[in-house]
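User: I'm writing a tutorial on reading structure tokens. Could you give me a worked example: one chain, its sequence, then its tokens, then a sentence or two explaining what the tokens reveal?
Assistant: Sure. Here is the example chain.
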Amino acid sequence: MAKVTYHHDEKLHHMESPGAMVPVLMELFKPNSVVDFGCGIGTFLRVFNEQGIEDVLGLDGSWVNREKLRKNISESSFRECDLGAPVNLNKKYDLAISFEVGEHIHPDCAETFVNNIVQSSDTVVFGAAIPFQGGQNHLNEQWPSYWAELFAKHGYQQHDLIRPAIWGDKRIQVWYRQNVFVYTRNGQAFATDKSGNFSPNFEAIHPDMYSYKAARLEKILSGKASFTEYFRWIGKKLLRSVGLLKS
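And here are its predicted structure tokens:
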């Protein structure tokens, strides 16, 4: 992962999703400390700060734009590291989060990535891109059951507590609404259970995600896409055909 670059576009990595999601996490877990694996420019940690949580730490690679980062959190709350290699924090946090990061980790390093997370907290909120979701430098798009199995090796149980609370909230970007689960050591339960009718391994495709992908495909097939869109589409098909792209 260390050799991969990532561009954090503030039009995509904005404050609306964190602003709507963090209060839900605060209500459920009431943490006093939070660590973010793949924090990007620190948008989620900024909202935790605003909610009164001073003990926060963001972890990410050398590609993070420090000027954008400083708009959200202090440099002292950030640690540059390779998330696909062993990371030793020498500390336990009340809550660990990782949103739309796992798909950027090479499959060979996925177990190490999860091990890093579980070493940091007994309570994890985690979501990663599903197959064919698409995005910048996605190396390992997987269904939630893939990640659940990796967490289960460490005694962590999957809970579908977050999605029912945010599924219809259009302030939140659809990949968060679709992909986020809670993982707890030894199946720790919570008094506030918003899981409703969602089953622990409910691998759902959100209607908004389906509509977005269908509209893009229709645009390409109808001849209305730009040259760049055609180039990317053909390039991905070629990479998949030779096994260089897994999703």
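What the tokens reveal: The chain has nine helices and seven strands. The first helix runs from residue 16 to 29.
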